[in-house]
Design goal:
It comes from Pseudomonas neustonica. The protein is α+β, with helices and mostly antiparallel strands. Helix content is 24%, strand content 38%. It has 2 helices and 4 strands. A 4-stranded antiparallel β-sheet has the order 1-2-3-4, covered by helices on one side. The N and C termini lie far apart (49 Å).
């Protein structure tokens, strides 16, 4: 099995919304760190669990960040879940070929009109 591409994996969490939230968190924390000279923190937590007895996993993802302010800090967190397929190419949002044919020509023959 190939290793999962972390960039693609993060981009697929919550249909791309998690990626945007992470970018916003990193920018806000970095801005607070530079403006106020205090430390900030961004934490990503991922928990994986199997869905039934399939080759699917549920990824619970949480983004938690603390940005320093003039008199303290500002904190925000968000948590959701995204299902993934475990394939030979690692974790993927869809099965190998989600739009492929479900049946072969032998299984569902189409006869010509006369």
């Amino acid at each position: 099995m190939k290793a999962t591409d972390p960039g693609e994996f993060i981009a697929n969490l919550n249909a791309g919304v998690f990626n945007q939230q992470l970018g916003t968190a990193l920018s806000e924390v970095a801005s607070g760190v530079c403006e106020h000279g205090k430390k900030g923190k961004v934490t990503i937590t991922l928990e994986l669990s199997q869905i039934g007895e399939t080759h699917q996993v549920k990824v619970a993802h949480k983004l938690d960040y603390t940005a320093p302010t003039k008199r303290g800090s500002k904190r925000e967190d968000t948590a959701l879940e995204t299902p993934f397929y475990l394939t030979a190419n690692g974790l993927q949002l869809f099965a190998d070929n989600p739009t492929g044919q479900m049946f072969t020509k032998d299984q569902a023959p189409v006869t010509a009109r006369t």
